[in-house]
Design brief:
Elements (H helix, E strand, L loop, with lengths): L5 E5 L5 H11 L4 E5 L3 H7 L14 H8 L4 E4 L2 H7 L2 E4 L19 H13 L4 E5 L7 H12 L5 E5 L9 H6 L4 E5 L3 H14 L8 E5 H32 L3 H9 L20 H14 L3 H28 L8 E5 L14 H11 L3 E5 L5 H11 L4 H7 E3 L3 H5 L4 E4 L11 H6 L6 E4 L6 H7 L2 E4 L7
Bound molecules: nicotinamide-adenine-dinucleotide (NAD) and uridine-5'-diphosphate-glucose.
Uridine-5'-diphosphate-glucose (UPG) binds next to helix 9.
Length: 468
């Protein structure tokens, strides 16, 4: 069996960084080099101060501290790392296309293709190339054609090894994955490549959790897993509106259905809408592929998950406006949280961005406190929507370092992220310093509603009988 001695990972992002850190920690005999064209990001990965790593993930600093400089390296020299490696992970971003055919739907594969061409140009020895990025089904074929036809005559095996970690729990998920999926060519050399990668994971993952399959099934399983997860969130969010209208309570409904072992209790938390860099992108990708094959009913079925999610975000913003006597013009609306979920500094597709944007359209003043997201990031997120000028966004957004100043004098508080610390705040003190009536819109259902009501707050929770 091929023994892997050197691994290169192209892309030092939310997936490449943590995944390679864990692989290196668990395989001290393998040299792992993570490369990126983003010099600032690489410098941050190399920062001696572990609180300055480019991404925030609980437990990541400890793993990096153990492996970095021993057998884990972060570098900008992509060619050198490719040249030396026996196994190359491609872990670059695959965003939704913003131009041309498939705009707003298809995955933009330009970064993947650039990687393939770079590998083809540089490689002088046989390589196993591992797709770690999430890709449309049959992308491996395109990568193989580029490598075989433009390369230096060396031989390549392409594996699909999608990543299932969730942000905020990345290290936990990597240490103890439900499964590791490896798709490869159905041939002797294909199977040998699969086993080489399986042995890397075998350092800490039990063999029965390492699934071997063909490349197309592996690629499609990743999109399908995300589509199913997102679909559960949209399903419970659809029911949340019905609960509000009918007097049922979505938490009770989720509990009751979740105890059915066929349904299961996870991913049934009603919310202001799912965010993150993956769910929407991957469903659009699935929808686009289905349309490409002429499968319109399949495409429409999955697209509804996104339509429901957009509606849920909009509905939350509209509820704030109607509750605040149909106007938020010049009112202070305080946001607790901006990240797309707790325990991450990632804001991609966060519901907070869209809710803020809708409220700014109504001329509200948004004041935000998030424990991990910077002001610069929030402004970048708003500017990216292109709804209004940067100056106008700056006029409507104030970012606070202290939650109590963010909440002082607010007409309404909206909880956008489920950070644990929000539950422990001194809510009496907050109430005393707010405009009255004091409204709380709990977009994550994390606060103790009864306690808040006793203090005097008027509370709107997702999927409950609410203030009208
Ligand atoms: N974020 C997640 O939780 C998650 C989980 C599972 C799978 N995925 C998938 O993994 C892939 C990466 O996601 P991410 O969140 O880590 O993205 P990211 O944007 O955080 O990181 C990607 C990195 O790749 C670098 N890059 C792009 N082109 C390059 C090139 N040619 N050479 C060198 N570096 C290059 C970028 O500079 C960037 O730092 C995506 O396909 C995503 O769908 C993400
Ligand atoms: O019951 C729930 C569960 C999640 N969410 C929201 O859904 C979004 C996504 O959450 P989560 O799936 O936990 O985080 P991600 O990091 O986006 O991880 C998803 O996307 C990754 C990228 O593909 C996959 O690897 C993971 O398996 C998959 O869970 C977040 O906004 C959550 O707040 C809810 O609203 N209710």
């Amino acid at each position: 069996m091929t023994q892997i001695k050197k691994i290169c990972c192209i892309g030092a992002g939310y997936v490449g960084g943590p995944t390679m850190a864990v692989i290196a920690q668990k395989n001290p005999q393998i040299q792992v080099t993570v490369v990126d064209i983003n010099e600032e990001r690489i410098a941050a990965w190399n920062n001696a101060d572990l609180s300055k790593l480019p991404i925030y993930e609980p437990g990541l600093d400890t793993v990096v501290a153990e492996a970095r400089g021993r057998n884990l390296f972060f570098d900008t020299n992509v060619d050198k790392a490719i040249d030396e490696a026996d196994m190359i992970f491609i872990s670059v971003n695959t965003p939704t296309k913003t131009y041309g055919k498939g705009k707003g739907m298809a995955a933009d594969l330009k970064y993947i293709e650039l990687c393939a061409r770079q590998i083809a140009r540089v490689a002088k020895t046989d390589k196993i190339v591992v797709e770690k990025s999430t890709l449309p089904v049959r992308t491996a074929q395109a990568i193989k054609r580029i490598l075989d036809q433009t390369g230096n005559g060396v031989s390549y095996q392409i594996l699909s090894n999608p990543e299932f970690l969730a942000e905020g729990t990345a290290i936990q998920d990597l240490m103890n994955p439900d499964r590791v999926l490896i798709g490869g060519e159905e041939s002797d050399t294909g199977r040998e490549a699969i086993e080489a990668l399986a042995s890397v994971y075998g350092a800490w993952v039990p063999q029965e959790r390492i699934l071997r399959t063909n490349v197309w099934s592996s690629e499609l399983s990743k999109l399908t897993a995300n589509a199913f997860l997102a679909q559960r969130v949209s399903s419970i969010n659809a029911i949340s509106e019905l609960c509000e209208a009918s007097g049922a309570d979505v938490n009770e409904v989720a509990k009751a259905i979740g105890m059915d072992s066929r349904i299961g209790s996870k991913f049934l938390k009603a919310s202001v809408g799912f965010g993150g860099s993956c769910f929407q992108k991957d469903i659009f990708n699935l929808v686009y592929i289905a349309k490409t094959y002429g499968l319109d009913e399949v495409a429409d079925y999955w697209e509804q998950v996104i339509i429901m999610n957009d509606f849920q975000k909009r509905r939350f913003a509209e509820r704030i406006v109607t509750t605040l006597f149909n106007t938020v013009n010049d009112k202070k609306i305080a946001f607790l949280g901006w990240a797309f979920k707790k325990d991450t500094n990632d804001t991609r597709e966060s519901a907070a961005i869209y809710v803020a944007n809708d409220l700014m359209e109504e001329e509200a003043q948004i004041h935000v406190f998030d424990p991990k997201v910077t002001e610069q990031q929030m402004l970048t997120d708003l500017d990216y929507l292109n709804t209004r000028s940067s100056e106008a966004n700056r006029k409507h957004l104030t970012v606070h370092q202290d939650p109590y100043t963010a909440l002082e004098n607010a007409h309404g508080i909206a909880v956008l992220t489920e950070w644990d610390e929000f539950k422990t705040y001194d809510w009496q003190r907050i109430y005393n310093k707010m405009q009255k009536p004091a409204f709380v819109f709990d977009g994550r259902n994390i606060l103790d509603r009864k306690q808040l009501e006793q203090i005097g707050f008027e509370v709107y929770s997702i999927g409950a009988a609410n203030i009208k």
